[in-house]
Amino acid sequence: MGMTNADIAAAFDQMADLLDLRNANPFRVRAYRNASRVVGGLKIDLAALIDADKELPKLPGIGADLEEKIRQLATSGHLPELDRLRKQVPAGLTDLLRVPGLGPRRVRVLSDALGLHSQVALLRAARDGRIRELRGFGPASEERIAAALEAQLSKKPRYKLAVAAQYADALCTYLAKGPGVIEVATAGSLRRARETVGDIDLLATAAEGGDVVRYFAACPDAKRVLASGATRGSIVLKSGLQVDLRVVPEESYGAALLYFTGSKAHNIRLRNLALERNLKLNEYGLFRARGRGREVGAVVAGRTEESVYAALGLPWIAPELREDRGEIEAARNGELPALIERRALRGDLHAHTTWSDGSATIEQMAAGARARGLEYLAISDHSRRRSVANGLDPERLARQCADIARFNARHADITLLTGIECDVLDDGILDLPDSALAPLEVVVAAIHSRFNLPRQKQTARVLAALDNPHVRILAHPVGRLIGLREPYDLDMQAVIRKCKARAVALELSAHPERLALQDLYCRMAKDEGVLVAINSDAHAVHEFDNLVYGVAQARRGWLEAGHVLNTRSLAQVRTWLRERR
DNA sequence: GCCGTTTTCGGCCCGACTGTTTTCAGTCG
Q: Considering the domain boundaries, does residue A334 fall inside one?
């Protein structure tokens, strides 16, 4: 039936939406949302396991009932209960849940009182002034709904990590000069280094919060102020990016940073751990629980993140791991990975020059790499099929190799490796003949055409390319461009197994538009014993700076330095590159 | 719907802000 984990997760999410709208038990709704997240974050392919008649592993938050529903989905592609619910709830109503400020209760009011079942109809009603008459709504709500819909219908994008990081840096500098501000930090998905960021979360410490929030709201780049209170403020920048600020006293810094960094699922796990120890965790600290309700006792921890984790019996957990994908268990068992850091990278195995579509010469790129602490750099320009990129044919490639040899003879502070980013043609044949590839040190295979082949054909094409004995690295394996082009349809499990069999490394492109391998595939590669190469794919000198984002993505994928090819010394990398299987 | 070395029933994370109220529900993160 071809049900992927993502399909199953989507079905559970729809169940949650529909149950929410039908006013079901909120904990039941949460169980479905939780299950959706768990299934969506799995490395193993559930449908494949069921197909092969194997036992499903015990998954947290998935009991007998949800396991049975997973089986139904995997075998039939349908969930009878979901189909039933769909008939009971007007189509389109779940779209209204996506409107900021609207939850299940208010959507139900809109549906019952005005028969509104779509965002377009809702916008019309808001403009006609029909919303303000409803119980629980007013002129301000109507205004906000109209504004949110207009923004949403014209699509509110998520921002690439590298872009959001620039706004965050500027705001941190501004905030640090605020009244009574002691410390400023970024939190949220930005600190967890997710590949895209929906909004920016900032944290500041100060004795008096209200002044800081007012100073924040008056920031020159703010277009609109959404909220402004004694400890929290929220603004929209001129670029459309939303920024939330939280201000806490110094002694709560660690607890607040933890709380504001998330993820939500990670926080809930921590709060449950606290409850088990008769403690209570909130953004102000970890406290002894006293009786029921909101009353709390003496503070146990909170000044630093480390102190809170320690009081819960855990070592500090890196933000990139905080997704409730097993990091709590790993921490408890002392099995947290020693995550790779940027300084562990000793080289870069994919970069371009003016020989194809790069903007800098071989000499300039080498100097830029050296200035950023790299000891070696592979020059891998495009192959001839990329004619728009001035791709290299065998004759030009041979001349470039001679150039590189001359460079290496003259320079001792960095070593260049000869290479190519070679196009994979339609049936998995490479763009250059073996005679041209054989003398090279690094052949990076890449797909730049026919992205919409069906899954089976695309996979066969990639597997065939991997059978070429000269291929050592598979470039940006899913071809996606964040926000521009979806990943092409590929059986990554099969590709990773083939890489293992052929001793080919998978590239994690640090280019901000790509940032692929995605985190889940990094973990898959690690589990299968396939090396990852974190490469810049730099077309200009400053693009070596992107390597830090590649490293961040690798950290989200639980990778240690030992799992990454270009943390090795030049001699070790050359040995590895020469190996054939 | 899940979960359990005190439990197979009765819990389920927790607080801030807003708008619409006249003390609080709904939404959000």
A: no
Closest-CA residue to A116 (of A156, A106, A13, A16): A106
| C1' of nucleotide B20: residue with nearest CA | A136
- State both tokens at A499: 């890489």
CA of A430 to C1' of B16 (A): 58
In a domain, A483, yes or no: yes
Asked whether residue A439's C-beta has any atom of DNA/RNA strand B within 7 A, the reply is no
Nearest to A175 by CA among A125, A247, A226: A247
* C1’ B3 / CA A63, Å: 9
Q: Is the CB of A227 under 7 A from strand B?
A: yes
Decide if A85 contacts A15 (C-beta within 8 A).
Answer: yes
Q: What is the pLDDT of residue A570?
A: 97
**pTM here?**
0.81
Residue A319's pLDDT is 96
Nucleotide nearest A59, from its CA to each C1':
B2
Residue showing tokens 């209204």 = A96
Note down the domain range covering A130.
Answer: 5-153
Alpha helices in A414-518 (DSSP H): 434-437, 455-466, 492-502
Has residue A14 been placed in a domain? Answer: yes
d(C-alpha A471, C-alpha A462), whole Å: 11
Cβ neighbors of A392 (< 8 A, separation 6 or more) are A355, A356, A381, A382, A383, A384, A400, A420
CA of A502 to C1' of B4 (A): 48
Query: If residue A281 lies in a helix (H) or strand (E), which one and from where to where?
Result: strand A279-282
- Relative orientation angle of helices A26-40 and A5-21, to the nearest 10 degrees: 170
H/E segment holding residue A355: none
Residues of chain A falling short of pLDDT 70? 1, 152-157, 290-296, 477-479, 483-484, 580-581
Is A374 in the same domain as A496?
Answer: yes
User: Beta carbon of A299 within 7 Å of strand B?
Assistant: no
Residue nearest to nucleotide B14 (CA to C1'): A282
Which residues does residue A509 pair with via DSSP β-bridges, in sequence order?
A: A516, A535
What nucleotides of chain B have any atom within 7 angstroms of a protein Cβ? 1-3, 11-21, 25-29
- Give the count of beta carbons closer than 10 Å to the beta carbon of residue A459: 20
Q: CA A268 – C1' B7 distance (Å)?
A: 22
Answer yes or no: is A433 within a domain.
yes
Name the DSSP letter for residue A315: -
Domain boundary among A130, A153, A176: A153
What is the predicted pLDDT for the residue at A497? 94
Whole-number Å distance, CA A176 to C1' B10?
48
Cα–Cα distance for residue pair A177/A165, rounded to 1 Å: 19
Q: Which residue has the tokens 């965050």?
A: A168
* pLDDT score of A293: 47
- What are the DSSP calls for A405-419, one per residue? HHHHHH-SS-EEEEE
* pLDDT for A99: 84
Whether omega for the bond prior to residue A263 falls within 30 degrees of 0, making it cis, is yes
